[in-house]
Design goal:
The complex is a heterodimer of chains A (about 90) and B (about 130). Chain A has a domain at about 15-65. Helix content of chain A is about 15%, strand content about 20%. Chain A contains two helices and three strands. Chain A has helices spanning about 15-20, 55-60, and strands at about 25-30, 45-50, 70-75. Chain A has a three-stranded antiparallel beta sheet. In chain A, about 30% of the residues are buried. Chain B has about 130 residues and is mainly beta. Chain B is built from two helices and ten strands, in the order ββββαββββαββ. In chain B, the strands form two sheets. Chain B has a six-stranded mixed barrel. Chain B has a three-stranded antiparallel beta sheet with strand order 1-10-9, with no helix packed on it. The radius of gyration of chain B is 15 Å and the shape is globular. The chains are: A alpha+beta (about 90), B mainly beta (about 130). The interface of A and B includes residues 37, 52, 72, 76 and 79 of A.
């Protein structure tokens, strides 16, 4: 999808997004957040997806003027790094 | 007092954060890390918000168990997490491994302005801002 023009999906739940784009990074727009602090939302449209962190960000770039707010999330399981992320 | 929920199935405590820049706002996933003195974001996300290394304040070095890696500090217009917002907030821009599924770390540079209780078994963080100078 990285070479295609920006395409926005139909509204989907997080579960549907995870099933359609397993273990991928996604950029979400038109997110119907439940509140300001959590990840929960009713539905969202996918504006980009890919195996790398950067891929969906680039795909969604043409939509920046249209969508002031976007979400950037990973659909797979969050895994602890092999070494601790200590920052001195 | 505010409550933030997290998924107890994840290996890390992941919270949502919001960052503002000239190209809008992004909501991202950060690992809450009380061992990190600084709050960290990957450069890819900062770039998409309109920041660049040219806006950086100084070059920094992240040290971990596997060595040291260079990055830079930068001030973002607005940053929010755990229900609280900071303006002109300093972020450390550094890359992280792709496979862990996060965009950065929520470190003590943000957390120290708060009192918080991490209730790991319940998947909840109870937070209140500390009133004081600054």
């Amino acid at each position: 999808m990285s070479s295609e023009a920006a395409h926005v999906s139909e509204p989907m739940t997080w579960q549907q997004i995870c099933e359609r784009y397993p273990d991928e990074w996604v950029v979400l727009v038109e997110v119907d957040w439940v509140n300001d602090t959590d990840f929960e939302f009713q539905s969202a449209r996918v504006a980009g997806h890919g195996k790398t962190r950067k891929e969906p960000l680039i795909q969604a770039r043409p939509l920046r003027d249209k969508y002031e707010s976007m979400g950037h999330f990973f659909t797979g399981r969050i895994r602890a790094p092999v070494v601790p992320l200590i920052f001195l | 007092m505010k409550i933030t929920r997290f998924d107890t199935n994840d290996d890390l405590i992941i919270v949502a954060a919001r960052v503002w820049g000239q190209f809008g706002q992004k909501r991202v996933s950060l690992a809450l890390d009380t061992a990190a003195t600084q709050t960290l974001l990957v450069p890819d996300v900062l770039d998409e918000l309109g920041y660049s290394v040219r806006d950086g304040e100084k070059v920094t070095v992240v040290r971990s168990a596997i060595g040291a890696e260079a990055g830079y500090t930068i001030r973002v217009a607005r940053f929010a997490a755990l229900g609280f917002t900071s303006s002109d907030f300093q972020i450390h821009a550094h890359d992280l491994p792709e496979g862990i599924g996060i965009d950065g770390l929520l470190g003590l540079s943000f957390l120290r302005q708060l009192n918080y209780e991490i209730r790991s078994a319940e998947g909840r963080i109870v937070v209140e801002r500390v009133d004081g100078p600054g």
